[in-house]
Amino acid sequence: MLTMKYGKHQMMLIKKRMNVESWIDGQLNELYKTATDDIDIDVDAVLDLNTESERRLYVMELLRKTHCPATELQIHDFLNQLMQKLDML
């Protein structure tokens, strides 16, 4: 059980991270209009990038490679929300 292995602060960070990853999965399902296994956004890989513009570009490239059918506006909104959520981690 996670609570036995980690302290309160670490558990809070783990829960935050899990919530963001769950949110990403839900948003990807909406962007692709279906449950999709074609794309997986590696949160660690995104966080390892130095600037927000690098992070946006990385995620945009993933969406392009997997032929995301969403509109530019939907993708822009997703990226804005994603950047805010990543800043909280």
From TrEMBL:
The alphabetized UniProt keywords are: Phosphoprotein, Protein phosphatase inhibitor
Q: Which SUPFAM superfamilies match?
A: Myosin phosphatase inhibitor 17kDa protein, CPI-17
Asked whether the UniProt record includes Amino-acid biosynthesis among its keywords, one would answer: no
Please list the coiled coil stretches: none
Q: Which Pfam families match?
A: PP1_inhibitor (PF05361)
Molecular function (GO) terms for this protein are: protein serine/threonine phosphatase inhibitor activity
Q: Which Gene3D superfamilies match?
A: CPI-17
Q: Name one GO cellular component term.
A: cytoplasm
Q: Which family, according to UniProt?
A: Belongs to the PP1 inhibitor family.
Instruction: State what protein this is by name.
Output: FAD assembly factor SdhE
